[in-house]
Design a protein that fits this description.
The chain is of the alpha+beta class. The protein has a four-stranded antiparallel beta sheet, with helices on one face. The model has no long low-confidence stretch (mean pLDDT about 85).
Length: about 160
């Protein structure tokens, strides 16, 4: 990890100081909280199948710069962190865009795709959330995954 590169948000307990939290705000916003920074990602579909537009922001904790780092060293560390976040995100974009292209191609060929529950439940869930939203319905809790509260238990 890179926790040694930055000061952390003040007031974190040991569990929080070694954790990352990931939040999805339906339908297109991701917020990731690291012990020293937060990044936001907004995705936007386009009219071209397989193309997704994005806006990514990296926000550093106040006082994240280590006392002995020069401004140039801090800037370089921040750029390395951003490059890491962008690289991981780019891997996700490839998967998303390939899925979009596959769905578009299947539709054009009259093929009904099959979901593989082990891998595709987030897509199935998301599509059902879209349909429920369009129809003015609340999210169907039956399609929501069971949540693991192991992290929450550590915090108590």
């Amino acid at each position: 990890g890179d926790l040694h590169n930055f000061n952390l948000f003040p007031g974190l307990n040991p569990v929080e100081a070694s954790s990352a939290l990931f939040f999805q705000l339906f339908p297109n916003i991701s917020v990731t909280i690291y012990p020293h920074s937060v990044y936001t990602l907004m995705t936007f579909p386009t009219s071209t199948p397989g193309v997704t537009k994005e806006t990514l922001s990296l926000l550093m904790a106040p006082g994240a710069k280590l006392k002995d780092d020069t401004d140039e060293q801090y800037k370089e560390k921040c750029e390395e962190l951003l490059a890491f976040v962008v690289n991981i995100n780019d891997e996700d974009v490839v998967a998303i865009e390939n899925l979009q292209e596959g769905l578009h191609n299947a539709k054009d060929q009259g093929i009904q795709g099959e979901f593989l529950p082990k891998y595709d439940w987030p897509v199935h869930r998301f599509q059902n959330m879209i349909l429920d939203g369009i129809n003015g319905k609340a999210v169907d809790e039956d399609i929501m995954p069971e949540l693991d509260n192991a992290f929450e238990k550590k915090m108590q």
